Amino acid sequence: MKKTFTFLTFLFFIALSATAFSNRLTISSNNDNPDIRVQVDGKNYQLGRNSQDDIVIDDLRAGYHNVKVYKSSGSRRGWGNQSNNLKLLYNGNIIIRSGFHTDITINRFGKAFVDERQIQRYEDDGNNYDNYEWNRQPMNERSFEQLKQSIRRESFDDTKLSIAKTAIRDQAVSTTQVKELLGLFSFEQNKLDIAKYCYQYTTDHNNYYLVANSFAYSSSKQELMRYIEQNR
User: Fold this and answer.
1) Model's pTM, two decimal places?
2) CB–CB of 71/37 below 8 Å?
3) C-alpha 1 chain-centroid distance
């Protein structure tokens, strides 16, 4: 009986560990058309919970997966019978590692940027959830200045977005730094895009409402505040 109990306890902790280190795949696009469709191993996905432009897929098995990213030129949403209206943006095989969040960003030229970050498991007010471990300091002054210089060298906002997102995935940022980054973009929509993206990587979420002051239009400010409220 004791051996049976010990074995069941062992299985319980194995199952718990598997849950703690689940996998996540996020696909986003800087393309002007936000109606993005994704196929992973032939299975169709559309839209996600992070934002209008992101598709989030949880708990994929570890290993290689075929990922195809399309944009739709049709007016109807959903896959339906619109295969003739779908333009292929990306087709590639990626590896999903256990306990990692893999992110694919497609720029307007159809080039894919793939990155990953390990998921940490911890408790918040007694509720367990998967999130990034942000007991970190924001990007130091020298690194942040180098990032800004790299962004300034680019002429197109889409390229600036790709550079900023790649750098921010690897290093945390502060609200003040996010406001500075927004000043490097020409178009309001791109500012809103990077503001939403930076939120999850910001060390001082309680100050993030200040980023809204960087926008010229009230609609952008309101959209950012809604995004913050939905992703707290």
Assistant:
1) 0.46
2) yes
3) 48
